[in-house]
Amino acid sequence: MPEGVRIRVLRAVHGDPLAAAELTAVLDERQLAGLEPLPADPVTVVPGLLRSLRPEFRSLPPDTRRLLLIAAADQHPVATHAYQRAVTAARLDTGPLDDAEAAGLARATSGGVVFRDPWTRIAAYETASAVDRRETHRLLARVLRGEGEAPRRSWHRAAAALGPSRRLAAELRASAHEARAAGEHALACVLLERAAELIPDPRERPRLLARAAADAWRSGDGDRARRLASHGNIDGLNGLLALRAGNATEAFDALLAGAVRSAERGAERGMERGMATGAEASTGAPSDRTVKGALIEGAGGSRVVFPAAADASAHLLARATEAAVYTGDLRRCREAAAVADRLGIVPPGTLGGLAAAFDGRYEDARDLLKAAAGRCGPGGDPTSLIHASIAALLLGDHTRAAAAAVGAAASARAMGEPAAVPQAMEFRAYAEFWTGRPRSAGAAALDALRQSYATGQDNGACHLQAALAMFAAVTGDEELCRARAEAARTHALERGLGLPAALALWALAFLDLSTGRYAASASRLRALAGFGPGHGHRAVRHLATPHYVEAAVRTGDTRVARAAHADYDRWARAVRSPDDLALSARCRALLATGHDAADHYRTALGLHAGGTRDFERARTELLFGSALRRLRNRTEARDRLHSALEAFEHFGSPHCAAQARAELRALGEPARPQTAARPLATVLTAQQLMVARMAAEGATNREIASRLLLSPRTIDHHLRGVFTRLGIRSRIELVRLLASED
Fold first, then answer.
1. pLDDT, tens only, 64-91
2. Three-state secondary structure along 635-670?
3. d(CA 150, CA 134)
4. 32 and 166 share a domain?
5. How far apart are CA 629 and CA 641, in angstroms?
6. Does 31 share its domain with 129?
7. pLDDT tens digits, one per residue of 516-533
8. Quick one: which of 269, 301, 422, 557 could link to 451 by a disulfide (CB 3.0–4.6 Å)?
9. 347 lies in a domain?
10. In total, how many domains does the chain have?
11. Which domain covers residue 17, as residue numbers?
12. How far apart are alpha carbons 597 and 609 in whole angstroms?
């Protein structure tokens, strides 16, 4: 069974292995493969488990069963927190709960009744008669009269209904709106599902179910969303679901078509309103054009649709652009840009920046990405913060990228939208990885992977599988790297996802590069040039250029490497990221010879000092040390190689560490086992040593920055470099090291 299906099955059955086995036995081939959602209600497909529990409840006294029924109805499927009030209102004695506790089924606490497990709670409800269940729901509805309790009161009123009721359906719709405004999307979903059951007119059901599907998706219940969306489509929901769990090219087509239809509907409404305002103008009445801000298509060709339609069109177009980016299809990116231009819609900065970068318009891409990355403040819309994190990553600002990703996850949780959390944590993992914390990044990505599967976002999980493959390549776990990469590439090829397919290929190429299989690495990286739906990706090919140049130089194939570097250098100069400029200088060094190469390496290391990609800095030192050895500059070569070795050991990158040791052996010197035994002046740069001494004296980052006329961010970077090179984790350890040297 695929990992994602297994996780969702366990989630659906509350982690019970017997129920999981029973549910799995009734799934069809498409459900087992993850191509169709799981059954609507696991309760109906695990009768064996419930049969085994019912005798325990039927043997209890009636008063005990009634108390357990009230508690169960109060807790599932909507938690209403009204048990104590209901018991008081019904003037019931809670003493009979002792029998339930003696039977090991449930126990009474100050906060209510705690069942042995979720299935025991469900059995307490299912064992009761329909009449008793309706009476219990009416009781709970009567006591739910507090502020903000209307949605839960409506739920119990609806659960007690005997048949269709337009009045109750309208009440449920209003309550769902209130629940949604409070960030309770799961509650809004069940309210709308019940409204669809109670609405007398069957023609109104598809729209209610589509609204319920949207709430299910935002609450993190992907299977429920996919089931409900099959009854109708609203605001491009089916396209969005395809983007997250289906075929990305089909998602693009559906979302783009939805954006155009939405704009056309808005234009039609604008035309109707324009005719009305024309009549008003003839009588001297104020025009709605100025009040609503809506223009209809005129002689000049300008068009602005009404705000609601414009927002919907912009949202759908943004998701369509996202789908195009995921596929890696340049033609689709251009098509989305053309539609945006025709509709007068400006895509979100990050997606517009990516599309511009795809098209080679690097200055435009830089400006759009900078604008998007600037929206990294606390709070705000999770999607906007995720886009800000992506933009900051592309610009080389990993600190800002991590902050935006953490903010996006916090905002998503606060707004009751867990589906956005794994998307945010993916980009936090990238930021941690590039700044030299691959194990921490791997742990974060693994957690996000489970959340992606649990929320039905298999395409997001595919991205994370590829990221984990790269992390495994860096940390030397060859078997895991290949397994993750294979899982990512298999899914990506099936769903037209060029981005994760390319990431997985890059991971395998880096594994080859770090283990000396240069020809294989160069071959894989060349394959990234063949981008297209489900295969490669222009952005990943671009990011992998420094590794490709290294592999190509090792195999003597520099012609294509020089062309690739020229494009990469143009990007680096456009964005002015210290890390990108450093990597471009490293490529230049690899493509040069003799002392010219050494000069370029020194330039690269100087630029790395202002960046945050400490792992790539160590790679630069390794290559520089190797070049110095060939130039017979043994002293500096030794220092550079020792510094690289210590960094790789700190990062937990054994293959790269082995390369550094091999270079040291070629110098005739074994690798030094401990950094602390070496004079700090041979380990740290002059700037790092100065910062380290001030920090050890107790100066804050801001105070050090003031003394050295640098920014606090630069000081923070220098201190992280000091900790990395010395293999320490705190200022206390730094004080001890400096004291021992003195």
1. 999 999 999 999 889 999 999 999 999 9
2. HHHHHHHHHHHHHHHHHCCHHHHHHHHHHHHHCCCC
3. 18
4. no
5. 10
6. no
7. 899 999 999 888 765 455
8. 422
9. no
10. 3
11. 3-45
12. 19
